[in-house]
Amino acid sequence: xxxxxxxxxxxxxxxxxxxxxxxxxxxxxxxxxxxxxxxxxxxxxxxxxxxxxxxxxxxxxxxxxxxxxxxxxxxxxxxxxxxxxxxxxxxxxxxxxxxxxxxxxxxxxxxxxxxxxxxxxxxxxxxxxxxxxxxxxxxxxxxxxxxxxxxxxxxxxxxxxxxxxxxxxxxxxxxxxxx
Length: 179
Known about the structure:
- It is a single chain.
- By secondary structure, the chain is mainly alpha-helical.
- Helix content is 56%, strand content 0%.
- It has helices at residues 7-16, 20-32, 36-46, 52-55, 69-72, 88-103, 126-136, 146-176.
- Helix 1 packs parallel to helix 3, helix 2 packs antiparallel against helix 3 and helix 7 packs antiparallel against helix 8.
């Protein structure tokens, strides 16, 4: 009953505040869906949940051999947009790095592993930056385009840290003046 052009938006919106039951239902529907557009909308919704327990389940789907990894690869970034879950993709990748590398396409002039450093893009503090560097620094050289993406994410983290440091005193003063 949903216009196909709106399916992605409707499902992702429902997932945003949905629970485990909805996640399981979407996963069941994905297993049956044949239409590429419907599958894409369902996969997008699977990556749109906010509950940390559910967010942790989405990246694992790209390791599931019953699914085409090319469809599921974006799920590695599930949770990046929410401060409560933004570190989960990095933690998942650290725990399943070798498995992920075995599954993602790395042939020809496209190396999906080069995009893996983007799991660190929301980081904005020294401990996170150090963990990011420690994990990726010696790994990205093997990815076509990996060093550039790594450098780009690292620069973003450093800029965020600098901005936070430059503005923290002003922000603190603002809140001190609030009733």
